[in-house]
Amino acid sequence: MAGRIAALLRALSRFPDTGASTSQLARSTGLARPTAHRLLTALAAEGYVDRDQRGGAWYLGPELYLLGEVAAQRYDVTQHARASVRRLAAATGESAFFSARRGEETVCLLREDGDFPIRSFVLHEGARFPLGVVSAGLVVLALLPDPEIDDYLRRVDLTARYGPAHRPDAVRERIARTRELGYAVNPGLVVEGSWGMAAAVFDRAGAPAWALTLTGVESRFRDHRRPELGALLLKEAHQLTRALAAHA
């Protein structure tokens, strides 16, 4: 039961502006529609979700906001990451992000746009992607222990939604390249022409728990510029890792 409720809330978080119908949420979670509706109704009674009475769309509810305010006092790392994200955006002109690992996904927590007028909108605050897809998820996956990677790629089919470029063998090639460089590169594999690069930020146990990302159009990520962007990402990721460890 708890797993089903968590899956519904995570799915609903992907629709912060438009809300989602019961059918959409059922499809996203693999639940039967009557089951999804029953759980959503129970959550609404407790304030964890809210429903637009005119259109019928579901939204995250006010009780989650109140709980989040309390939890943020212990778990919120964005106050430390915000300066890094702003420096990356200012130094490069690109859009910069901070994402957190949540289970087998990365969730974007912060976004800051640089002054270059053409931007990529693949990432936004609240966006979730499976590990191994966007550059943040790739760098986190690449730096996990090999048995964990093997288990993940054996269980998870990324091709169903993201295409043949996300076959296990292709993902493994990018993992090897990421380990060689120290940062991940996504050459427009989610949206054509929209590139991303990311470096991992580590927790006190040395596990990749977060990532700093730069995204932009392909012409801004040519061969001659990627090493410079990678070096900036690694520098900020290292500084942020140290700052988070000091305040843990």
TrEMBL record:
Gene Ontology biological process terms in this record: negative regulation of DNA-templated transcription
One annotated GO molecular function: DNA-binding transcription factor activity
Regions annotated as coiled coil: none
Record Gene3D superfamilies: 3.30.450.40, Winged helix-like DNA-binding domain superfamily/Winged helix DNA-binding domain
Domain HTH iclR-type: 1-62
Listed InterPro entries: GAF-like_dom_sf, HTH_MetabolicPath_Reg, Tscrpt_reg_IclR_C, Tscrpt_reg_IclR_N, WH-like_DNA-bd_sf, WH_DNA-bd_sf
Protein keywords: DNA-binding, Transcription, Transcription regulation
All copies of domain IclR-ED, residue ranges: 63-246
PANTHER family: HELIX-TURN-HELIX TRANSCRIPTIONAL REGULATOR, ICLR FAMILY, TRANSCRIPTIONAL REGULATORY PROTEIN
Protein name in the entry: Transcriptional regulator, IclR family
Species name: Goodfellowiella coeruleoviolacea
Lineage: Bacteria, Bacillati, Actinomycetota, Actinomycetes, Pseudonocardiales
